[in-house]
Amino acid sequence: MMANRLAEALEDRGISRRDFMTFCASMAVVLGLPNEAAPAIAAAVESEAKPILVWLEFQDCAGNTESLLRASHPTIADLILDSISLSYHETLMAAAGSQAEDVLAKTVGDNKGKYIALIEGSIPTGADGAYCTIGGRAALDIAREICGGAAATIAVGTCASFGGIPAARPNPTGALSVADAVPGVKNLINMSACPANAENITALIVYYLTLKRWPPLDQYRRPLFAYGKSIHDNCERRAHFDAGQYVESWGDAAHREGHCLYKMGCKGPATSQNCPVVRWNEGTNWPIGCGHPCVGCAEPNFWDTMTPFYQRLPNVAGFDVGSWVDPVGLSLTGLVAAAAAVHGVAEVVRHRVGHAASDEDGPETE
Amino acid sequence: MTHIVVDPVTRIEGHLRVEAEVDGGVVKEAWSSSTMFRGIELILRGRDPRDAWVFAQRICGVCTTVHAIASIRAVEKAIGAVPPPNARLLRNIIISAQAVQDHVVHFYHLHALDWVDIVSALDADPAKTSTLAQSISDWPLSSATYFSGMRDRIKAFIERGQLGIFANGYWGHPAYRLPPEANLMAVAHYLEALDFQRRFIKIHALLGGKNPHLQSFLVGGMATPVDPDSQSALNMETIAALNKLIADGLNFVSRVYLPDVLAIASYYKDWASIGAGIGNYMVYGDYPEGDSDNAQLFFPTGAIHNRDLTNIATVDHAKITEQIAHSWYDYSVGDDKGLNPFEGETTPHYTVPKPPYERLDVAQKYSWLKSPRYDGAAMEVGPLARMLVAYSTGRPARVKVLADKVLTTLGVGPEALFSTLGRIAARAIETQVLVESMGRWVQDLAENMARRDYRIQDNSKWDPSSWPRDCFGAGFHEAPRGALGHWVHISNGSIVNYQCVVPSTWNAGPRDASGHPGPYEAALVGTPVAKPEQPLEILRTLHSFDPCMACGVHVVDATKREIARVRVM
Description:
The structure holds two protein chains of two kinds. Chain A is of the alpha/beta class. Chain A has two domains: 52-226, NADH:ubiquinone oxidoreductase-like, 20kDa subunit (Rossmann fold, 3-Layer(aba) Sandwich), CATH 3.40.50.700; 231-349, Cytochrome-c3 hydrogenase, C-terminal domain (Cytochrome-c3 Hydrogenase, Chain A, domain 2, Irregular), CATH 4.10.480.10. Chain A has helices at 2-12, 17-30, 38-46, 63-69, 76-83, 97-110, 139-148, 158-162, 178-181, 198-211, 224-227, 231-234, 238-242, 253-256, 275-278, 302-305, 328-349, and strands spanning 52-57, 85-89, 116-120, 123-124, 133-134, 137-138, 152-156, 175-176, 188-191. In chain A, the strands form three sheets. Chain A has a five-stranded parallel beta sheet, sandwiched between helices. Chain B is of the alpha+beta class. Chain B has one domain (2-321, 374-565): Cytochrome-c3 Hydrogenase, chain B (Orthogonal Bundle). Chain B has helices spanning 40-44, 52-57, 66-79, 85-111, 126-136, 144-159, 180-200, 202-208, 236-265, 383-393, 397-410, 420-450, 503-508, 519-524, 536-544, 549-552, and strands at residues 2-6, 16-23, 26-34, 217-218, 221-222, 281-283, 286-288, 297-299, 302-304, 320-323, 329-330, 338-339, 347-348, 371-374, 470-479, 482-491, 494-501. Chain B has a three-stranded antiparallel beta sheet with strand order 1-2-3. In chain B, strands 12-10-14 form a three-stranded antiparallel beta sheet. Chain B is globular, with a radius of gyration of 24 Å. At the A-B interface, helix 4, helix 5, strand 2, helix 6 and strand 5 of A face helix 1, helix 4, helix 6, helix 7 and helix 8 of B.
């Protein structure tokens, strides 16, 4: 049965069952074992354990969990049946109460330093931890234990990555990101956005399963493959921005013709994510494609720095300087300046700042 | 007397803890506690009311449309904005798609494992499974070969030894009663439903840019441009895509979901007399069929007391109060009082127990949920409440037709609706009625386009200078989990106070000042528990409500200075 499944998987990759058994026989020779050992080696290879993932929810809305359910390549069913062992996920798991707690304790106990922790939601520090408890334990206590023993921690969504909405002004519960709540956590990757795009979550898992390493990150510890370019750079409406063609009011001719939403408050110039390329829900659409401005949901502290949502960003190059076509280089300079200005304001407004990666706790790229 | 603690309650949204006293194999008393708090309403204070829906939407990512809708309705009411017909239709399609998708996910992925034993499916005969499947539906994925492949896939998964989300379930528990073939069929449909929900929700991507957390709502209308002659607007290609997705939805719901509910229920008929609870039901009503303030609602409003279906009262929003006698909040007027949301106040004040803890002190405060009351009474909200009001009023007529068919098929009377099983059946009936109705709203939208009516937004109220200096509004919505209300006070263009009273607060709230239990707490009393260390039956009744705790806990009165006591990092 399993052999058949592996054979099919190998055949998909151009490796026949015969090639595979030849490989096992040669492995037997290398290991100094009798030829009869080949089937045993085959069985061992075929039963290779799937990577173990535990998904914890703290101050969350389950939006990232729902997003995961929308994954299409691979689908969530293929992922959890064939590729990974999702050992703990409160929204999906069969066990509850002490049976659930036992699963978590056993999983992290038996696999210390080997499992991957995925965290959804921020972590509150107020009221002695009583703003979020699971099984009577404070979220902070659980996060320290689980992230502390993980081979890598993936903060899924903006709440876990940067504090998100619970940490928005005035942050009533003292909510923190994973980076701030569990300082020094090993191999932390932030998959921000509200929620994180399903295709980016699964792409990160596929990246790790395929390349056996974690991807290079930007200054906010986000993978470059998903956050390496701004929305504005890849926007299908960019030509309208450069040509000075803007939507002026909802439902006007420019809105119906798909002109630039910058004047309606679009935060695409200050937001890095691959929405215009990957889009959402199997590439069906994305917010700007639907006629609504980007709200900047992948950026740190966007609830405070990108609001009011319908007010346009200041200081974006190419705007209000006529209808000249914006040279690429100048645009990029302006973009960085705009982003810096926005985040600079954040430093003043916010109670706390500083989610930028530090070198010593960066993921290994080898 | 055995004391049971279930924490975390899994296969729900959010953080729910239940404690129960069990004696003689039956629950004697139960306490429902929500253990997570964020304070989103306090965060809304001082912000632009046009932004509020984006914030409120993040109350919940499972019911990802519901708080956005309630929020824009509340702000529109306050400032006097009137969305045009196309916006109403787009919203009706979006919220019905939410309900259909959410109900399917609830039944298969959050609830089914309370009734379906996956391990037992390994013993199924694929040929017999095929016969069973074909006896309940003409759904094409029903051959012996198909079920044989499915069984092999599960077997391979289990033999590999890493059970993942299925580890440590209650497999083999005596309360599981399905034959192996029914279990195998249900597991196959569990996986098919995972695919279905992902495809069907593309309706939200088409009309909202993405799901979860759609991004096309506007105070005063919608941001989705409508123009059959533009490739950048909702056009005939979108209409055709919507119709295709809705047809697929109707196909799955009527040929898989509804037949599965009937098939599984037929093995668990005793659950038609378990889990009724308080017997009071409340519905605000939703899906406006016209654009005036008093337009008819597809699902009508109504309040039912003591299971009396002959007397459906009109809901008076002024009779809604929230109490905090057993909630971790203070009231300036005294903790034994109730307050209407327009003058509501919420000052979070955690008392006991200090984490980590073993037991709640249920004599004191024990939940982050408040206790909403209607005219002083606890009310159950949700699909069962909606279907009872629809069944009794005859609107929409399809509800009575389908409900009677379900009752006849199971050989039970209407009193069976007041139960754990009744909630499951009501949810399935509602899904069928909604998915049958969605096409009509798409058709109306297309007809507006034919008349060259492309309006999507009331731009006359977009500029804050057009608003009253000081204004109040309340917005109501029937979310998948029940009656939802948002209350907003706007002054000088920004939010002064924001309050929500949410379905899971109605259903999961703790005891009130008089010691009367909330709907979960009442429904659990009398639930059999065969093995206290494996409280599968408690999960059945809890899950029948479809708990959504992130929704339930959020309310903070922004005007109370005591909030400053909370430590801000």
